[in-house]
Write a structure and sequence with these properties.
This protein is an alpha/beta fold and about 475 residues long. The protein has helices spanning about 35-45, 85-100, 110-115, 120-130, 155-180, 190-195, 210-215, 220-225, 275-290, 335-350, 365-370, 380-395, 430-440, 470-480; strands at about 1-5, 15-20, 55-60, 70-75, 105-110, 145-150, 205-210, 235-240, 245-250, 255, 295-305, 320, 325-330, 355-360, 375-380, 400, 420, 445-450, 455, 465. The chain is elongated.
C-alpha cells in the first residue's frame, strides 16, 4: 500500500473515501468543513454510531466534495485519546476499506493534529490490520487497498514517522509470516534461510550446525534436538551500526514442539508451530533495524530445533552440561525452551553485551496468569525492566513484572546436578525464569514470556487471528533508545 502526503483540503481531494476520525459525541468536530458535513456526521451518529473505539460508519458526502463517501472512524473518549486509539481506528478502518473493495482513501488530520498526536499511529494500525496469510489458499483475496493519502502539510518529522510506521509494520508482518507457516515448511533450515535473507552490508548472518554446537559444548541445546531428524541450526545475526557494547536478543526458536518424550496432549498441538515466535520476533527486529540503518549495535541469537520424541530423544532424568559449565537434570522434556535459551544466553555472553533480552513462548502458566493481555517479564536489572515497561506502554505490547525471589532457586534444585529444568507446576512461570537467571549471571538481563500473546484465536482491531508478531515493536522501542 502506498502512503503519501498531500497538502489538500478535504473537499478538494479526489478519492473513494475521506476518513474523518471522531471522538465520542463529537458531532461538531468538523463544523469548519461546512454545514453539509456537519449534517452528514449527525446522521451517522443517529445510526447506532457514537464515536466509540473501533466503530466505523460510512455516510454520503455532501455537495462540493470530490470524494464518493465519508467514513467516520471512532476514537473513543476525547480525554482518553492516545496513539493506541489511533492504531485501533487505523486497523478497523483498513479492514473496512479492504472488505468493501475501496482502493484509495484519504485521512483528515485536522482533529488528530489538534490533539498533538502523530497520524503515523493511524497508518501503523492500518498497515498492521491489512495483514493476511493466504499462502496455502487456492482462492486468494484480490481486494487490496492501494493508497492512503495523509491530508497534511509535508514535514520532515511526519515523513520520518510515517516511514518508521511502514518499517515497523513490515517487520511485524515478516515475523507473522514465519510463525504462521506450518512446521513442515518452517524447519530450522527454513528459519536459517529466512535469517540469511536479511544479510546486508551491516548485518551478518552465521549458522552453526550440530558439529559446531558439540564443539562449543552446547549440551542443553543439543539435548532438545536429539529426537528430530531435522538438523539443528544455531543462528547468529550481528548488526553493526553504532559504537559500544551490543544489546543481544535471544529468541526461542522451536519450530515444532511435541513435548518430546514428555508428550503434549494432542488437542491443540497443531498450534505448536508457534513455538518459534520469539525467534521470529528477533528476526523482525533485525530486519527493521537494518532497513532503518539505526545507529546501534545489535546481536540476534536463534537456537533453532524441533522437539520430538524418538529413539535417540532425550529422556526424563538425563543430565546434560550447558556451554557455561552448569549441569542440568532434565526432569521434563516439554520444558525444552529454557534448555535452548540456556545455551543461547551462554553464547550471548561471548559478545560482552550491554544487556541480554530473551523472548520466548515459554510456559503455559504465563497464559493462565495473564491471559492474552500481557507479556510476563522478569529480570535482574531494574533500569532495563523499567525501560521495557515504558516501551510496552508506548506500543501497547504491555509487560507485567513477576518476581524472582531468591527462594525460587530451591524450586530448581536437583539432587544429582547443579540444577533441574523444571520446579513442577507450582510457581512454574517464575521458576522457569529463575532457571534462565542462572545462566545470565551478572549481565543485565530480562526474560519476556510471550506464551499468552504470540498467538490469538480471536482477531483484534489491528491483529488478525493467528500469529500476532508480538515483541517486534516492543523490542524496537528498546533498541531505538525510547
Amino acid at each position: 500500500m502506498v502512503i503519501s502526503i498531500k497538502d489538500l483540503g478535504e473537499k478538494d481531494c479526489v478519492c473513494d473515501v475521506i476518513i474523518l476520525p471522531v471522538t465520542e459525541g463529537g458531532t461538531g468536530q468538523y463544523a469548519g468543513l461546512g454545514r453539509g458535513v456537519a449534517e452528514a456526521i449527525k446522521k451517522g451518529f443517529s445510526r447506532k454510531f457514537s464515536g466509540k473505539k473501533s466503530e466505523i460508519c460510512p455516510v454520503p458526502t455532501p455537495a462540493g466534495f470530490r470524494s464518493e463517501w465519508i467514513l467516520l472512524a471512532g476514537l473513543g473518549k476525547k480525554g482518553d485519546l492516545t496513539s493506541e486509539s489511533l492504531r485501533q481506528a487505523g486497523g478497523k478502518t483498513a479492514s473496512y476499506l479492504r472488505a468493501n473493495g475501496i482502493k484509495k482513501a484519504a485521512l483528515s488530520t485536522a482533529l488528530i493534529s489538534s490533539l498533538r498526536i502523530s497520524p503515523s499511529a493511524f497508518v501503523e494500525g492500518a498497515l498492521l490490520g491489512l495483514y493476511s496469510y493466504e499462502k496455502y489458499r487456492a482462492e486468494k483475496s484480490n481486494s487490496r487497498v492501494g493508497e492512503i493519502l495523509i491530508l497534511s502539510k509535508p514535514s520532515r518529522d511526519l515523513r520520518r514517522d510515517l516511514n518508521w510506521s511502514r518499517i515497523a509494520a513490515s517487520a511485524v508482518s515478516f515475523a507473522r509470516d514465519l510463525v504462521n507457516t506450518p512446521s513442515n515448511d518452517m524447519t530450522p533450515t527454513h528459519l536459517a534461510k529466512a535469517a540469511g535473507s536479511l544479510r546486508s552490508a551491516k548485518l551478518s548472518v552465521k549458522v552453526l550446525g550440530r558439529r559446531e554446537a558439540v564443539r562449543l559444548g552446547m549440551g542443553t541445546y543439543l539435548a532438545v534436538a536429539r529426537g528430530s531428524n531435522e538438523p539443528p541450526k544455531f543462528i547468529v545475526l550481528e548488526y553493526s551500526g553504532g559504537k559500544g557494547a551490543p544489546k543481544v536478543l535471544v529468541g526461542k526458536s522451536i519450530t515444532f514442539d511435541s513435548g518430546g518424550i514428555s508428550l503434549k496432549p494432542s488437542d491443540g498441538m497443531e498450534k505448536m508451530k508457534y513455538d518459534m515466535a520469539g525467534g521470529a520476533a528477533v528476526l523482525g527486529v533485525l530486519k527493521a533495524v537494518s532497513e532503518a540503518s539505526l545507529p546501534v549495535n545489535l546481536v540476534g541469537i536463534l537456537p533453532a530445533t524441533e522437539n520430538l520424541p524418538g529413539g535417540s530423544a532425550t529422556k526424563p532424568g538425563d543430565v546434560v552440561r550447558a556451554m557455561t559449565g552448569l549441569t542440568v537434570e532434565i526432569t521434563n522434556t516439554d520444558a525444552e525452551g529454557r534448555l535452548v535459551l540456556a545455551d543461547g544466553i551462554g553464547y550471548a555472553k561471548r559478545f560482552k553485551p550491554a544487556a541480554i533480552v530473551d523472548i520466548a513462548t515459554l510456559t503455559g502458566a504465563c497464559s493462565i496468569a495473564l491471559g492474552n493481555e500481557a507479556i510476563a517479564m522478569m529480570g535482574n536489572d531494574r533500569g532495563l525492566l523499567d525501560r521495557l515497561k515504558r516501551c510496552g506502554e508506548a506500543v501497547n505490547e504491555r509487560v507485567w513484572e513477576m518476581p524472582l525471589f531468591e527462594e525460587y532457586r530451591e524450586y530448581i534444585k536437583s539432587d544429582i546436578a547443579d540444577i533441574k529444568n523444571t520446579g513442577g507446576r507450582t510457581g512454574s512461570l517464575v521458576s522457569s525464569a529463575y532457571f534462565l537467571k542462572e545462566f545470565a549471571g551478572d549481565t543485565p538481563w530480562v526474560h519476556l514470556d510471550i506464551a499468552g500473546t504470540a498467538w490469538l484465536d480471536k482477531e483484534r482491531p489491528y491483529i488478525p487471528k493467528g500469529a500476532s508478531g508480538v515483541g517486534v515493536r516492543l523490542l524496537l522501542e528498546l533498541v531505538r533508545g525510547n
